[in-house]
Amino acid sequence: MRIHNRLQKVMLLFLACSLLLALCGCDRSQEDQSAQEQAPGRFWYESVFLDEEDVEHAFIEASGDFPKCENLPFHFHVTTSFMPEERHEELYGTPVTVHIMRYAYGSVQGEKGNIASDNEGLLVELSSTDKRMQDLIDSTDAIFHITGSYSVAGQYTAQLDYADGTPIDITIEGVFGLCINDKSLTLEQQN
């Protein structure tokens, strides 16, 4: 009788744990995600990653002093897609030319008006001699820019008024890749 009661308790505990896992959204689709991507607060973005000295030089040439705000991005980059459902791993490591056209600095509002941030950025055009990369650039609906510095939220740099910004004409080179949680960079082809 005692063994039977223990066995029932173990089975009930097993069923309860199984139900808990099912309710928490545990599914097999996460198996192909990295540990960083599964972590709380995870995010990833495909971008053209740039040399820090090249970008700092462009900001100094445009504005005379850099940075104007206290926060800098983890890596200087031009985002092509934030948290894309489809990744372009076969293009990671592809060289991309970045033509810097305008500098802007000012206060921007978050999409819902709940965040105000001072940001400085560079408006850019992207191009590549690789046809597949150029096709991806051409199909991307974005204001290509480089966030230089920001007070609260770097993601709002695209909203700066570049039309009234300072014209600049500098061309630098970058590399297309993936960044996860502002920590892990992938700059090599992944096929």
Report what the structure shows.
With 191 residues, the chain is an alpha+beta fold. 25% of the residues lie in helices and 34% in strands. The chain has four helices and seven strands; from the N terminus they run H-H-E-H-E-E-E-H-E-E-E. Strands 1, 2, 3, 4, 5, 6 and 7 form a seven-stranded antiparallel sheet that branches. It is globular, with a radius of gyration of 23 Å.
**Strand-pairing-aware structural class:** alpha+beta
Structure annotation, total helices: 4
- Count all strands and give the number: 7
Helix content: 10-25%
Distance between the termini: 59 Å
The low-confidence runs, each spanning 5 or more residues with pLDDT under 50, are 10-40
Summarize the structure.
The protein has four helices and seven strands, in the order H-H-E-H-E-E-E-H-E-E-E. It is of the alpha+beta class and 191 residues long. Strands 1, 2, 3, 4, 5, 6 and 7 form a seven-stranded antiparallel beta sheet that branches.
Can you tag this structure with a few keywords?
4 helices, 191 residues, globular, alpha+beta, 7-stranded antiparallel sheet
Topology:
Blueprint: H1 2-23, H2 35-38, E1 44-50, H3 52-63, E2 77-82, E3 95-109, E4 116-127, H4 131-139, E5 145-150, E6 166-180, E7 184-186
Antiparallel strand pairs: 1-2, 1-6, 3-4, 3-6, 4-5, 6-7
